[in-house]
Write a structure and sequence with these properties.
mainly alpha
């Protein structure tokens, strides 16, 4: 499994430079953005690109001819995505610090949590949908999510004051820990779902 993760890291050396360039661009020209959004974009780029590249090359046929179980192949993707996320957020943090872009550890944590949630809903699509449809599905899903969020947040703000007051009464630490547990739980469930699907998939 470690060799599969190492393979992704070696293949994506060029993409890592692109990710650095994206963060530098945001640090210079988009200083009005929330730092957590930059950490989110940085952490998404490498894992998502690894899946997309394999979709284009149809490399799953090759992986299944090598001495790796399907469980190991899926585990390498999910564990590798977390490692890429940590690497990307670390690099982004250094770049933002260099450009005097103000951020906190909380911004890093929010970016990491949002990545885990995004990955939890996105990664299984690469095992469910046929190649060529995944990018479209992700784009449609993102638009639906954005539309739903823009509709839900005002409704919650106006009508569910009890819930808002409840969250406002919680400490920052409690909120971060709760968010981390939710994000990790969704990611683990996604991992198990992808493993279940991939082990039964015919190539």
């Amino acid at each position: 499994m470690l060799n599969l993760i190492k393979k992704d890291l070696i293949i994506q050396k060029r993409e890592l430079l692109v990710s650095v360039a994206i963060v530098v661009f945001y640090a210079i020209f988009a200083r009005q953005l929330s730092p957590f959004f930059i950490f989110l974009v940085a952490s998404i780029f490498l894992p998502l690109n690894a899946y997309i590249n394999e979709e284009k090359t149809k490399i799953n046929i090759l992986w299944n001819s090598l001495p790796y179980t399907r469980k190991e192949i899926v585990a390498a993707k999910y564990a590798g995505a977390v490692l890429f996320m940590i690497l990307s957020i670390g690099v982004a943090g250094v770049i933002l610090y260099f450009f005097n872009y103000s951020y906190t550890i909380g911004d890093m944590a929010i970016g990491a949590g949002l990545f885990l949630i995004f990955a939890a809903f996105t990664f299984p699509l690469f095992y469910i949908l046929k190649p060529g449809y995944i990018g479209t599905a992700i784009m449609i899903g993102f638009l639906v999510f954005s539309f739903a969020l823009s509709s839900i947040v005002p409704f919650v703000t106006e009508n569910l004051t009890v819930i808002i007051h409840f969250f406002a009464s919680l400490s920052t630490l409690t909120l971060y820990l709760s968010g981390a547990m939710i994000a990790l739980s969704l990611y683990i469930i996604s991992w198990l779902v992808s493993q279940f699907i991939y082990e039964r998939k015919v190539f």
